[in-house]
Amino acid sequence: MKAANSKIPNAYSAECPTRQILDRVGDKWAVLILLLVRDEPMRFNALRRAIEGISQKMLSQVLKSLERDGLMRRRAIATVPVTVEYSITPLGATLADAVDPLREWAENNLKEVLNAQRRYDAARKDIAA
Amino acid sequence: MKAANSKIPNAYSAECPTRQILDRVGDKWAVLILLLVRDEPMRFNALRRAIEGISQKMLSQVLKSLERDGLMRRRAIATVPVTVEYSITPLGATLADAVDPLREWAENNLKEVLNAQRRYDAARKDIAA
DNA sequence: CGGGATCCGCATCGATACTG
DNA sequence: CAGTATCGATGCGGATCCCG
Q: Is residue B35 situated within a structural domain?
């Protein structure tokens, strides 16, 4: 990543906010966690169970970064054994709201995307043959 | 969210549309390209120049997957040398629209996120000391 | 101009084991 | 229960060269 190019009209420099946020939203787990926690505070292993396929390492890692970004709050309760509750912050809630249209789009259009893929692959196969 | 995982109240299975789409949107380059191409059709090297830091390999790779997903259209014009124009599809345009709130959020809240990070890091440093 | 093919380093991530 | 620590594979992505 080099210097910014403010000259070019339609350009995304490395410092562009969209890119920086996209890098975080791009973390496929982060958004899922955010959406889950928005509905209700959740505990570590509850999240682990709710998100099929996530490893404990990834989960704790992503949770930490979400907390660092001010999107989530971590609350440890001194019981035995320890209880930890993760809840969304107001800032996180606004992000979750901004992601909602995307989730709706996903639900409404996934099939069409999959169809497009099949068409594309079929066309490619014709060329190969 | 449909009957697939209607048992578990808050869960994201691997087949969840949101996850599948997020995997694509998670590709940090894909969304940027989509947003650029929405405004006006663009050519390969124009995109390359517009997106700071992308390699030609990544660009051609992402372009191909966007085309495969039916989100973008590739049009080759038989000039010498070849001219190739990438434009958004109607489906892609709806996705771009769904991403817009996210971009706005990014522009409005990046600073707050960065502040949160600094606070978090400062607190951690205190503990270390 | 618009890519494909290849090589390869390094960061990611999963698996496992251990702890407060 | 809620994590940390370590190791090892793998695959992403950059760099480079080449071609129609």
A: yes
